[in-house]
Amino acid sequence: MKFYDLVATELPLVLFTTFTQAVVGLIFVYTPAFIKGYKSQNELKNFGLFSFFALFFALLPSIFHLGDITHVFSFLKKLVMFKLNGEWHINYMNNEVMCAGLSLVFALLLYLKANRNFLFLSLIFGLLCIFFMAGAYGSMQASVTTWRFDITLFYFYSSALFLGGIFYHLAFAKDIYEEKMAFLVGLFGIGILITSIVFQTLHLGNVFVAGVINPFDLLNGNYGNFILASAVLIGLAMLLWYFNNYLNKKSKTLALVAFLVAILGVMISRIIFYGLINTHIMH
């Protein structure tokens, strides 16, 4: 299998995790904006509809990852926890999808009835979705030595903050106070995101695949190239965002370009993240 085959195989997970984190991050930024009074009660309805469709499209790639739609029935039988060899285990992956689905449901309810509690519940289950998302990979760290729960948790949450802030800038920010709030969230997110990538790289330098092979040897230089490309794109997105904040009239086109560049930057780092489970095919 070639490297591009790997990318195609893992693309549903790359799209699902990146887009879901972007939408949850958007809800995270919108919630304090509403609490602070930047957004009115009347605007909740439109936000509920927007976040519902955004989450819906973010979840679509996860269906393709199932391979067979009948796997949904197996998923339903193992919600929350499952028993294996007489012991109970948290089913992180199923809980991840369940929480994403509940966040979707509460977004729809927010549209149907503009109640702030539905906004809070959509946010809570969105944040739980990301926790279980990271836990799904952390639970496999004994066998997949290139993954660590703590690093993955910071990586995923920081991606949500960065993408959520720039998403809010694109779709909902109207005045300078909202722009500053969103930018600060994004700046905080990008700081943790880059730090997470650095710690992930340090971690990879101290583990071996199959007990004998260094991950960097298997990646044949791809890791450095992808991480460099990711860092450049993420930095470029932040610069475009910063520049757009100080234009006399914010450019929607520039905001869209910044958002798309940010998404691409995160996705490139995410491709390597999932590729590390099968680094032996990247010779």
Task: Indicate the topology.
Layout: H1 3-35, H2 44-66, H3 71-77, E1 81-84, E2 87-90, H4 92-112, H5 116-138, H6 149-171, H7 176-204, H8 215-219, H9 222-245, H10 252-275
Antiparallel strand pairs: 1-2
Helix pairs in contact: 1-2, 1-5, 1-6, 1-10, 2-4, 4-5, 5-6, 6-7, 6-10, 7-9, 9-10
Mean pLDDT: 84
State the low-pLDDT regions, or none.
Answer: 279-283
The quaternary state of the protein chains shown equals single chain
**Overall form:** globular
CATH class (first level) name = Mainly Alpha
Report Rg.
19 Å
Task: Note the beta-strand portion.
Answer: under 5%
The CATH architecture term is: Up-down Bundle
Counting H and I runs of at least 4 residues, what is the number of helices? 10
Organism: Campylobacter gastrosuis
Transmembrane segments: 12-35, 47-73, 93-112, 119-140, 152-171, 183-203, 223-243, 255-277
Keywords: Membrane, Transmembrane, Transmembrane helix
Protein name: Dimethyl sulfoxide reductase anchor subunit
Task: Write a compact overview of the structure shown.
This protein is mainly α and 283 residues long. It has a single domain (3-282), classed as Formate dehydrogenase/DMSO reductase domain (Formate dehydrogenase/DMSO reductase fold), CATH 1.20.1630.10.
Feature tags:
single chain, 283 residues, mainly alpha, Formate dehydrogenase/DMSO reductase fold, two-stranded antiparallel sheet, 10 helices, 2 strands, disordered C terminus
